[in-house]
């Protein structure tokens, strides 16, 4: 079977040696088994995330987003642009929609792009890896390569904000999207369907600037997973993953809780289910070890 | 008062709504707000907002320029997009909050030392320099933004987390020397400068 081809935009947090690098490791195994080929966009730049606005303003931010889109159009024509990171996807899609909808902004952005010898035509479609999984592969397709069932594991699917809003996944609701639970079931684990913090915001970039306020959010997200009997949280978002895993020790220190809830990406679940080793699934990249998943991967 | 601020005051005299419509990202939407209050209950850090988005929109229409632009509130936006998907009038509230924060920042009316303002500035600088964000330099800059003594305290407090990230290969100490970047940062700088120049011209910022 010919492989499905996509222009791939990894984003800063997923480069080697960055906080989401284990996400990238696991995405490789998963795509290999699903006959997906990700072609990295040459010389991509950071998307400015949702915190870039304060200094960046509108046009510099749009130009930064459009540069990636233009590079994809030029080097990987005809391929959809796929990001693993919701913030990257959001920034690219916002840039694409706003520029396509406003001829003056498009002209101004292209004037800036001329400085780097590029031109954005507005044709490439920015998509999230989750969209590719659901729309191009489908749940049946995701099931096919499964060689290991994650039976007996109870997992809380934490969707967070930006995979879910404002665009979300077609056909899913904003308040209670189902796809992550379905992915958990694809690998034979049990999804905590009553998890009430599924789409709660973790504080995002404000985890740095407003630690107390964000840690309150994170505490509810972890606590509810415990309350519903989950032994692990799974998420599609790099920043959610980092925030919810990394700050548990801080919350423990300050508030006397005893949190040690592993937080992994859906790509890691699938990698293990597809027979990937713990290393291939990036399970060595966690501060809170996903012990049970490591055991299953090691079997 | 900065030069750009004086000019804006003179130009728009008492019409703050028009100023927002012309100069703030997505500001032309403000007049569409019907004050239903749905967005007011949507912000995750809700009780930290002295003025909810709904209130800010009302204040803009009432010409409360000073209060709006010096407010700490829009800096509490986590970009969760709860408001956007709920607003019956489809206002791009998140972007208006970002736009107001950016405008207040550029006019230098935003609260001094506001933590999110500082983080955002550092983040943008990290990105604009090389085209990619260097998490280690970014975190170090973060710790030291309040000066050396506080910086060392901050870094010590987060030391166990930093070390754990290094151990799990999620933070690379070598990033301090070089690290990831785009091939030709020079031309990237030119692109960003050009975009900024166009925006400044359009929005009347004189630097
Ligand atoms: S979202 Fe974060 S990691 Fe992704 S490109 Fe943007 S800034 Fe870099
Ligand atoms: S939950 Fe947190 S990290 Fe995830 S998208 Fe929302 S703000 Fe970003
Ligand atoms: S939800 Fe929309 S219409 Fe209602 S107050 Fe907020 S901005 Fe105005
Ligand atoms: S995006 Fe910002 S303004 Fe909208 S609900 Fe979230 S925090 Fe509030």
Please provide a written account of the structure:
The complex is a heterodimer of chains A (299) and B (207). With 299 residues, chain A is an alpha/beta fold. Chain A folds into 2 domains: 4-128, Up-down Bundle (Glutathione S-transferase Yfyf (Class Pi), Chain A, domain 2), CATH 1.20.1050.140; 146-298, Rossmann fold, CATH 3.40.50. Chain A has 13 helices and 8 strands. In chain A, helix 3 (58-75) packs across helix 5. Chain A is globular and about 55 Å long. Chain B has 11 helices and no strands. The model of chain B is unreliable at 173-178 (pLDDT under 50). With 207 residues, chain B is mainly alpha-helical. Chain B folds into 2 domains: 12-111, Alpha-helical ferredoxin (Fumarate Reductase Iron-sulfur Protein, Chain B, domain 2, Orthogonal Bundle); 115-197, no CATH class. In chain B, helix 7 packs antiparallel against helix 8. Helix content of chain B is 55%, strand content 0%. The chains are: A alpha/beta (299), B mainly alpha (207). One iron/sulfur cluster is lined by residues 11-13, 46-47, 49, 85, 87-88 of chain A.
